[in-house]
Fold this protein.
Amino acid sequence: MGSRIVPVRLDDGDLRQVNLLVRFGLFSSRSEALRAFIRLGVRSLKDVAEGLEKLSRLEAEEGDIPIRLDGALRELLAGRDRFT
Amino acid sequence: MSYVDTSVIVLALDRLDPRCSLAKAALKRAGDKVVSELVLVELSTVLARKSLTKLFAEKLGVNRRLIASTLILYLLRRFGLRVRAVDGLIRIPMLGNMSQPMAEALNLSERFRLRNLYLLHLAYVKLLKEMGERIDILMTADKEFKKMAKEIEEELGVSVQFIG
């Protein structure tokens, strides 16, 4: 698998944490640490990203937003009225 | 800029309501639109109560823990809505620390005499304005806000746009 260089700006606080992890030997370099964090983030949000893509596809197929809330406004307003 | 109440988003998705297309058009027409954390919570409750979180978790293959966020993210993007959070605590004499929206709702309760969720929405409008959001419209499909339009305008400097 190929790789590319992506410039990333980090704030001082985050960079300090990354440096600390490298200094403690958890990662051999800042690049390795950032690669690991990004991989974790991408993996954890993969489902969400794919879900959003599927929703877009469904909308294109159906010609309307695929999330239907029939009768929900009445229920929402009634619920607000019950809430003290 | 408009603060969009949950009721408008729900109405735009409620095809049984004849005002559905009005809500969609209003959302499309409005420029900068902001929602609060409270809108996200109300939306997630509506989605769950309609069993849509369960349905879409299966349909999209998204974990049940992430499905509400996924659907809400889609709707935010679809309607061009921006979320602005309010954090921080306020110290209320004798009562201790309280989250800002709660404390503001408490302050507004005497003026508006509304139920909790209405007060919380108004508290968010006031706090977001204080944070620099130039909110001048409260977009809603809820008659309770419409009834209080004059008071809301006077107290918060925001006009109520009722969809209906």
Summary: Residues 65 and 77 of chain A are 22 Å apart (CA to CA). The helical segments of chain A are 12-23, 30-62, 72-82. The radius of gyration of chain A is 22 Å. Chain A touches chain B through 26 residues (CB under 8 Å).
